[in-house]
Amino acid sequence: MYELLTSLMGDLLLQTGLTQLWWGNIVMIIVGGYLLYLGIVKKYEPFLLVGIGLACIVANVPGSDLIKPGGLFYYAYQGVELLILPPLIFLGIGAMTDFGPMIANPSLVILGAAAHLGIFVALIGAKLSGFTLAESSAIGIIGGADGPMAIYVTMKLAPHLLPQISVAAYSYMALMPLIQPPIMRLLTTKAERNIIMEQPRYVSRLEKIVFPIVIAIIVNLFLPPVAPLITMLMLGNLLKECLVVDRLAETASNTLLNIVTLILTVAIGSTMNADSFLNFTTLLIIVLGLVAFVFGTASGVVGAKIMNKLSGGKINPLIGSAGIASVPIAARVSHTVGLQENRNNFLIMHAMGPNLAGVFGTAISGGIILALVGF
Amino acid sequence: MKIPDSIEGAALLSCIDFFLSFIFIAGIGGVLYLFPLLNKLGEVKEDKY
Predict the structure, then answer these.
(1) Closest chain A CA to residue B45
(2) DSSP string of A138-173?
(3) Distance in Å, alpha carbon of A306 to nearest chain B alpha carbon
(4) Closest CA to A202 of B42, B26, B40, B36
(5) Which residues of chain B lie closer than 8 angstroms to A205, CB-CB?
(6) Distance CA A324, CA A83 (A)
(7) pTM of the model
(8) I need a surface site. Which of A126, A246, A308, B3 has the fewest CB within 10 A?
C-alpha cells in the first residue's frame, strides 16, 4: 500500500512542470514580470507589454502544452509565422491614422528617411558581430521602430531570430520616452528647441481619399516585397477617409486591431522561452537594437537641423526624431520635449508628419532589403 | 546578382538602401506637393453619407 501511494505521488510529481524547471525559466519569469511592471505600473505601452509579459511568464512555466505544437499559444504564433497578423495590424493602424499632417507638409517626409540611419548602423554592427547578412538585415530593421515590419522582414530573412527581434523592437518602442529625450537635448540648442512652427495647411477630404490609392500604387509598384503591409495600411486608411463604410473602419480600428494585438502580443511573449532566449545572441541583438534606436534618433534630429538651416529657421529640430516610425509614440515624445522648453509650443501635429513618413521609410528600407538580400 | 554575405556586402547594402530610401521618400514628397491641385477637381463633402 505504501509503495503504491509513493508510486502514485511520484507519477503525479513527474507530470508537473517542477521537475523541468531550471534557473533560466526563473530568470525569464522575472523578465516577464518586469515587462508587466513597465506596462501596468509605468504605463509604457501597456497594450503591448501586458500581453507579452504574461505570455513570457507562462512560456517559462514548464509542463503545459501551451507553446508546444497543438497548444493555444502555438496557434497564436502561426498567425505570425504565416505573416497573417502583421498585415492585419497595419489594416487597423491605417484605419485609425490621419495622414493629413504628412500631406500638409511634404518637405518633412524626408525626415522619414533621415531617421533610419540606425537601421544601417545596426546592420553593419550585426555583420561585424558575426551574423549572416540576412540575420544582420533583420536585426537592423529594429531601427525602423515598426513592430509589424520588423516581424515581417524577420520572418522572411531570419525566422529563428523572431523572439529576440520582436521583443527588442516592441520593448524599445515602449521605452522611447526614455531613450529619445536625452539624445534630442544633446543635439539641439535651447533656441532650436524653442522654435515655433507655422500651422500646417488644411488638407481636404478629397486629398485624404486619393492619398491611400496613390501611395498603394506607387509603393507596391516599386517595392512589391512589402505590398501586403502597405496595401493593408492604405486599405485601412481608405476605409476611414471615404466616410461611406463607417462600420468597417470602426471594426478595423477597434475590434479587429484589439483582437490581433491580443494574439500578436501573446504570440511574441510565448517565444521568450529560456531555452531559446537566454543566450549571447539575444544580448547582442538587444544591444544592437538600442544602437539602432539611438542612431536613428540622432540622425533624425540632425536631418531636421539641416532642414532648419535651409528653411531659414522654420523647422524645430525636435520633430526630426519623430521620423522613427513608431506612431504616435515618437511624435508624442517630440511634443513633450518641446512643451518642456516652451509651454506654448505644440509640436504634435508637426511631428506627426515625419512620424507617419517614417512608416513608409521603414517599409521602403525593408522592401529594398528584401529585394536585395532575397526572401 | 545578390549582395555578397560579407562586411563589404553589408556596407554596400546599407549605402544603396539609405540612398534609395531618400530617393523614394523624396518621390513620395514630390507627389504630395501636387496634391493641392486635386482640390481644383472638386470637393468631397465632409458630412457622412
Answers:
(1) A205
(2) HHHGGGG--HHHHHHHHHHH-GGGHHHHHHHHHHHH
(3) 15
(4) B36
(5) 43-46
(6) 23
(7) 0.87
(8) A246
Taking the C-alpha atoms of residue A136 and residue A313, their distance in angstroms, rounded to an integer, is 38
Select from A178, A231, A222 the least CA-distant residue to A364: A222
Cβ pairs bridging A and B (under 8 Å): 127
Vertex A104: Cα angle to A102 and A109 (nearest 5): 35
- Residue range A66-77, pLDDT digits in tens: 877 888 888 888
Distance of alpha carbon A142 from alpha carbon A144, whole angstroms:
5
Q: Distance (Å, rounded) from C-alpha A165 to C-alpha A167?
A: 5
> So what's the pLDDT on residue B41?
86
DSSP reduced 3-state for A83: coil
Q: Judge if ipTM > 0.85.
A: yes
Spans of chain A below 50 pLDDT = none
- Please, how many CA atoms are within 13 Å of residue A53, restricted to the half-sphere of its CB? 20
Q: Is A335 on the interface with B (CB under 8 A)?
A: no
Q: Which three cell numbers stand for residue A311?
A: 528653411
What are the residues whose beta carbons fall under 8 Å from the beta carbon of A218, sequence distance 6 or more?
Answer: B27, B28, B31
A191-236 tens-digit pLDDT = 999 999 988 899 999 999 999 999 999 999 998 989 999 999 999 9
**Domains of chain B, residue spans:** 7-37
CB contact under 8 A, B43 and A222: no
Residue of B nearest to A366 (CA): B17
In the block, cell 533621415 appears at: A114
What's the confidence (pLDDT) of residue B46?
A: 67
Q: Nearest CA to A215 among A229, A200, A201?
A: A229
Round to whole Å and give the CA distance between A365 and A119: 8
Write down the pLDDT at residue B4: 87
Contact (Cβ atoms closer than 8 angstroms) between residue A188 and residue A304: no
Mean pLDDT of chain B: 87
